[in-house]
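The data layer described in this paper is built around a simple, fixed record for each protein. Because each token names a local backbone shape, the row as a whole describes the fold. We quote a single record here, exactly as it is kept in our systems:

***
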Amino acid sequence: MVECGCLAHARRKFFDLHAHNNSQLAGQALQYFAQLYNIEREVQQLDAHSRCQIRQARAKPIADALHAWMAVHRLKVPDGSAIAKALDYSLTRWTALTRYLNDGSLPPDNNHVENQIRPVALGRANWLFAGSLRAGQRAAAVMSLIQSAKLNGHDPYAYLKDVFTRLPTQPASRITDLLPHRWQPSRAA
């Protein structure tokens, strides 16, 4: 496994500083991030190979300039300051943050995944009252199946209805055929 950083998390640290403190340095960093995201909007619909080529030609020089800018300004700001923390966050994660530049199949951030898990995060407090640890574990398993079904392009209701119908007669040796990434609807579904 190789770590891929989230450019949005790095950007957010500067955004918060600029929004709350009107930090000029944070504003300058945001200009670099804006350029990187503008390129991403342009290449969004392209295939991975083309996306990688454009990232290398256009985004990599901007990312290199941002890195150099961060390194220079980190030496000028006091340790422990909010801007130092924002700079340190990006500088210490730079390799992971820029990994997407070398692979057109990687996104620059994990916003899509975070949007997918937001309902789980928002419901977390409510699920403290599932009744018991076992009930919570069962609820987590069902929610995982529902989200996995969605990610695999299935209607969760149709998927669960078919799986629950077939489950009692499904041979144990073929139980994995019912997992969302392998499931094929039965003829009756």
Observations:
- The mean pLDDT is 91.
